[in-house]
Structures are given as C-alpha cells and as structure tokens.
Design brief:
about 220 residues, 8 helices, single chain
Length: about 220
C-alpha cells in the first residue's frame, strides 16, 4: 500500500517564524533597555501582545527563549572549536588555541550580550553561569595545557584564570561596543601576538577592528 505524500503544516512554519521574529525583537529591545516591556517587544516584532503571550508565558519565558538560543549558539561554536583542535594534532599550541576560542565565540557574545545584563534580573546567576559552563571548561583546559607547555605562567590555577580572562573579554567587548561608529557600523575582534590578558610567552592580545556594514 502506498503511503500518502508527506505534508508540511504551514501553521507550524508560520509559528516558528513568528517565534523567531519575537526573539529577535526581544534581543534588540532588551539590548537597548533591559526594562523594555512585552508591549515594547511586541511592537518591535510587528505583532500584538496576545501573539507574544501565545509563544511565551511572560518575560521570564521570553528571556528563557533567548537563553536557549544562546546556549545552542555556544554549543555549535564549541563543536567548531573542538573540530579545529582535533585537526591540529594531539597537543596544539595553547596560545593559538586560546585565540581561536576567543575569535570563534566573540560573535556569539556580541549577539547575546543582552543576557549579561539580564543574568541576575531574569535568569538568576546560576542560570547564566550554566550557559557559560562549556566555554569555561574549554578555556580552562586550554590554559592547563598552556601551563604544562610553559606558554602561560603557573601562578594562578586554570579555573580562576579562565574567569579572569572571561571578565577581561567582556570588558573589551563592552569597550568595542561603546566605541563602535554610528550608522550601522559593525565591529569584530582580532587576536595578535603581543601583550594581552594571559601572562607568559606568545600571549594573544585583542583589539577592536571596525568595518562598515556590507563590506
């Protein structure tokens, strides 16, 4: 007996598209003002408040949706980092590996920086910390390897050093954002050999490189 052809539910596709549009609007509006209301977000998304509530029970659920998207973006980035490390042999250079981690995760951090401001208010410290666990574990592993290789100094254990690097990068990213040119300019980070947040030889440094959108 021949099975009927598979059909696609256009309502499901529409619902997914609407959910994505709401989350994008939430990311933008909450990035401008963490106190933005669901009404503000609905207006920015071009939907009614009722539509927002059809997808998210309230503000906490909406922020949870952003956190889930951020978590998936981090997971994908870590997968890319792990694949890159595997292709470079069993013991790749730790300083270069650390620079690759920063540059791979920079766009994710920039896109979801809103969650940093919302961490205590909506996610709670533990909720936000949970998102960063894969990154912290990866960075701590690289730092430990670098200390064994003699690339990084051993005065501070990898765990606390990873947190210090995390704080440094957040400050650097915030400085880039503050200095970003108006009218739609985008920015990215570049890692160069030289003085940076990790004491030791071959340490990476980070600086903002501005570029015009569309170039």
């Amino acid at each position: 007996m021949t099975s009927p052809p598979a059909t696609h539910d256009p309502l499901s596709r529409t619902a997914r598209a609407t959910r994505t549009r709401i989350l994008e609007a939430a990311r933008r509006e909450l990035g401008r003002n963490v106190d933005s209301s669901l009404g503000d977000i609905a207006k920015a998304a071009g939907v009614t408040r009722r539509t927002v509530y059809a997808h998210f029970a309230g503000r906490a659920a909406l922020v949870g949706g952003l956190a889930a998207d951020a978590g998936e973006a981090i997971r994908v980035a870590i997968t890319v980092i792990d694949a890159s490390a595997a292709s470079r042999g069993p013991a790749p250079d730790a300083a270069s590996a650390l620079a690759r981690v920063v540059l791979t995760l920079w766009p994710v951090g920039d896109r979801y920086r809103t969650l940093i401001g919302l961490a205590r208010q909506d996610l709670g410290a533990n909720g936000f910390s949970g998102l960063l666990t894969p990154v912290r574990d990866t960075v701590a592993g690289i730092l430990a390897r670098g200390q064994r290789q003699g690339v990084f100094r051993t005065g501070v254990p990898p765990g606390p050093l990873s947190r210090a690097l995390e704080a440094h990068i957040l400050v650097t990213e915030g400085g880039c954002r503050a200095k970003a040119r108006p009218a739609g300019d985008r920015f990215r980070a570049r890692a160069d050999p030289g003085r940076g947040p990790i004491p030791g030889q071959g340490r990476p440094s980070y600086r903002c490189v501005f570029r015009r959108s569309g170039r």
